[in-house]
Amino acid sequence: MENIKLKRNDYISWDEYFMGVAYLASFRSKDPNSQVGACIVSQDNKILSMGYNGFPRGCSDDDFPWAREGDALETKYAYVTHSELNAILNYRGGSLEGCKIFVTLFPCNECAKAIIQSGIKTVVYASNKYDGTPSVEASKRLMNAAGVRYYQYQTTGRKIEIYV
After folding, report:
1. Long-range contacts at 125-132 (CB < 8 A, ≥ 24 apart)
2. Phi/psi class of residue 119: alpha, beta or left (left: φ > 0; alpha: ψ in -120 to 50)?
3. Catalytic residue status for 84
4. Helix, strand, or coil here: 149?
5. Strand, helix or coil at 130?
6. Which residue, 86, 89, 67, 90, is CA-closest to 77?
7. Dihedral pair phi/psi, residue 143, rounded to 5°
8. pLDDT category of residue 4 using cuts at 50, 70 and 90
9. Using CA atoms, how far apart are residues 151 and 46, in angstroms rounded to an integer?
10. Helix crossing, 109-118 with 83-90: angle to 10°?
11. What is the pLDDT at residue 11?
């Protein structure tokens, strides 16, 4: 009888893989407080786009503020593009209808609007540290009304290391 090899059983799931990509994207963020990443995936598990929170193209990370408090124009909030919107805008392939987005932080209401308008139908998020805030509550209301499914990523506790 021929020696038959069986496939290994400790490979990562699709959710682990795509959330890992979202976390990897978050490492590109220069934000000293919040690094958020997103990964958009087709219905057949192909990565279509990625994004992270940062300033728009052409706007220097050194010329705009990273502060969280103070005068509105002296904080990051008027200038930063969130990871979800960056991933949506970075996609150059046409429609995102029916896709899934993996994001390391639950989307704010502005990103929820972009997710809905782009046709994305599922949001998988890692953290919801702002749960209960008006922005997150508005996001949930919008996504529920639009039929966008969302669920929290369930970590396996597996440690995945990348050496470069």
Report:
1. 125/150, 125/151, 125/152, 125/153, 126/19, 126/22, 126/23, 126/152, 126/153, 126/155, 128/152, 129/105, 130/105, 130/106, 131/106
2. left
3. yes
4. strand
5. coil
6. 67
7. -65, -40
8. confident
9. 20
10. 20
11. 87
Which of 94, 147, 102, 83 has its CA nearest to residue 118? Answer: 94
The residue type of 155 is: T
pLDDT in tens, 94-131: 899 999 999 999 999 999 999 999 999 999 999 999 99
pLDDT tens across 36-74, in order?
A: 999 999 999 999 999 999 999 999 999 999 999 999 999
Q: For residue 136, which amino acid is it? A: V
Two structure tokens written together for 27: 């490492």
Query: Quick one: residue 114, left, alpha or beta (phi over 0 = left, psi -120 to 50 = alpha)?
Result: alpha
pLDDT tier for residue 1 given thresholds of 50, 70 and 90: low
Q: Order of strands across the sheet with 47-52?
A: 47-52, 37-41, 100-105, 122-127, 149-152
Task: Point out the catalytic residue in the list 2, 16, 74, 84.
Answer: 84
Give which of 92, 96, 84 is closest to 38, Cα–Cα. Answer: 84
Q: State how far the alpha carbon of 29 is from the alpha carbons of 22, 56, 80, 159, 162, in Å.
A: 12, 12, 10, 22, 18
Distance CA 84, CA 61 (A): 19
